[in-house]
Amino acid sequence: IVDSLDAVKFESSSDTDFSDPNLAVMCGKTGLTAGSKSWFYTSVDRCRTWSGPFEIPMFDQLGIAARTDWIVESAESATMLLTATKPDGGEGRVFACRTDDGGKKFRFLSWINSAPKGYEIMPSSVQLTDGSILTTVRCRGSRRDDCWIDLYKSAGDAKTWEYLGRPVPDTGDGGNPGSLVELNDGRLVITYGSRKIPYGIFAVISEDHGVSWSNPIVLRESFGNHDIGYTRSVVRSDSKLVTAYYVNDDPDGERFIEATITDFG
After folding, report:
1. How many CB atoms within 10 Å of residue 14?
2. Whole-number mean pLDDT of the chain?
3. What is the pLDDT of residues 84-105, one digit of tens each?
4. Whole-number Å distance between alpha carbons of 254 and 244
5. Domain 122-265 grouped into CATH 3.40.50.80
């Protein structure tokens, strides 16, 4: 998070080739509630150098809080899922937007859930071979310890959504976002940090395109405190899963960034 837009000088327009195999995209934001603005950077040399920042429009919302979540569709087209404030200025609710000109302009597509009771934030999405999109969202109810991860599906080009279920019913004190990926054999995996005892980095697996999910699988135990997680997972060419996160092993110690490689067989 950047404290002020005074520290951000936007470039005029993006001209991104989304089909470039070396492309990386990273989003940034100033905050989470009313007044928050967001942008993105691009790299075509595997994160050695970056172009940007390029401004993400406000879409007539009080605040936009981006967390990198893009679905590439062609050289010029990509769908991005973002978190906007609710009408009262608090966080938040998730929506989809699309660019068809390499990131120069974006158009609003749809709300995933326009009126969550608490908040729904930090989407993580995959597109299946049939073209449908699955998205996990970090959810919180009326209490800080009432947190979970929900799953939504769009079979309508990100213009309409249906609720699929709750793959992770309890993520603990304050909650945690999930990272949704598709393995090379078609199974889906959500990794996440659990902020309830026992703390740790966990995964759940679906073999039926998100209809049902396994019990949690421990990827990494944590012996510190609840301030862990925010996983990001990618699938290697050998089908192994690389999951990065932050963690700590001492209740009074400092957090650090770590990665775990998992072979789900």
Report:
1. 20
2. 94
3. 999 999 999 999 999 999 999 9
4. 17
5. no
Q: Is 171 helix (H, G, I), strand (E, B) or coil?
A: coil
Query: Quick one: pLDDT at residue 143?
Result: 84
What are 178-195's pLDDT values in tens digits? 999 999 999 999 999 999
Q: How far apart are CA 106 and CA 99, in angstroms?
A: 5
CA dist 11 and 219 (Å) reads: 40
Q: How far is CA 227 from the centre of its chain?
A: 18
Cα–Cα dist 154/124, whole Å: 13
d(C-alpha 188, C-alpha 168), whole Å: 13
Q: Coil, strand or helix: which one is 234?
A: strand
Question: Where do we find the tokens 């050289």?
Answer: 75
Domain boundaries defined on the chain: 1-111, 122-265
CB 118 within 8 A of CB 141: yes
Single-letter amino acid code for the residue at 17: D
